[in-house]
Design brief:
Elements lengths: L7 H7 L6 E4 L3 E5 L7 E7 L6 H7 L1 H17 L6 E5 L14 E5 L9
Antiparallel strand pairs: 1-2, 2-3, 3-5, 4-5
Helix pairs in contact: 2-3
Length: 116
Amino acid sequence: MTAAEDCLFCKIVAGDIPADVVHESETVLAFRDLNPQAPTHVLVIPRSHHANAAELGEAAPATLVELVSAAAKVAGDEGLGEQYRLVFNTGADTGQTVFHTHLHVLGGRSFTWPPG
């Protein structure tokens, strides 16, 4: 599975929609969230289309690992050190609005538990 015609993130990967890219590799792309929930809020996505993290893990586990590795690199590049939160949302009831796997990298402020 490589791209979905109506997927916002696939259009970003294709370069059809601009994004503030902070990291990229052959398999992943990281860009700033347009509606940040923290001073640092970056989305890390696979270049291939998979609806959620579980689907990606089943189809391409190495890419799922690369998402997390890229997220750690982004956190370091953004000056977050080891103080950041990683979030995958799976399904509409959890707040997933774009059904293309994406890992949120959040940092730069204190967070509470449990989240929202």
